[in-house]
Amino acid sequence: MQKIVILTGAGISAESGISTFRDADGLWEGHDVMQVASPQGWHQNQALVLDFYNQRRRQLKTVNPNDAHIAIQKLEDTYDVTVITQNVDDLHERAGSTDIIHLHGELNKVRSTGNSALVYDWTEDLNLGDQATDGFQLRPHIVWFGEMVPMLEPAIAITAQADIIMIIGTSLQVYPAASLVGYAKLGAKIYYIDPKPHISHELSRLPQLKIIADKATTGVSQLVRELMV
Ligand code: APR
Prior knowledge:
Strand content: 15-25%
Mean pLDDT: 95
Bound molecules: adenosine-5-diphosphoribose
CATH architecture of the largest domain: 3-Layer(aba) Sandwich
Radius of gyration: 18 Å
Order of helices and strands: EHEEHHHHEHEEEEHEEHEH
CATH class of the largest domain: Alpha Beta
Number of domains: 2
CATH topology of the largest domain: Rossmann fold
CATH superfamily of the largest domain: TPP-binding domain
Low-confidence stretches: none
Strand order of the largest sheet: 5-4-1-9-10-11
Distance between the termini: 14 Å
Number of strands: 11
């Protein structure tokens, strides 16, 4: 069975109603990213950070996977598929994809600020005073700017095995996620689906790149139909 790796970013969730990060003049729902997604921001104002992710978690309950998420799941009938996403939403899971790596964490998980191995499923609001079993305050299980990306090594290993790589809805501006496609093996087919494709350093060096300058729901559905014949 051929191996497909699907690298997704915020753009795949845009048509589900979740804002991207860099289409809206760099603000995240009106917040400075360093205020709500960095250890410094957490240190300065834990309540603000908790409220930001509580709003994101509440919003997630009101949106659904779109045709692009669903088309990706269908690929599993014919290919060995791994989704490697920068997104913290659960839309790939809800579309039925079964092998997903979240490089930047998950909105519906929280962890101890003491022992980071203490991770819990959490779909409601998280507030000051909510503690892990080790007695430490709980925080969003999100990789903030400047923090390590624990799933990077497995993501690199899987990407290097892919016969086909689909890059969907990412501006490829945040590292190390943006470096993944650079590990593509010789001869792997690369597709990049984005209405405003950003040709990163890694992409510019890939001869076998096909750019589909389209939105995810149409571009991905069309490509999946072609790959499934
Ligand atoms: N279909 C496909 N792509 C789309 C659509 C759509 N309907 N709408 C927008 N896009 C594209 C944009 O053109 C852009 O290239 O999605 C991309 C979104 O880029 P970003 O907002 O930078 O999101 P992303 O690349 O996922 O950001 C990476 O940065 O802010 C951090 O941790 C955060 O995971 C995030 C990371």
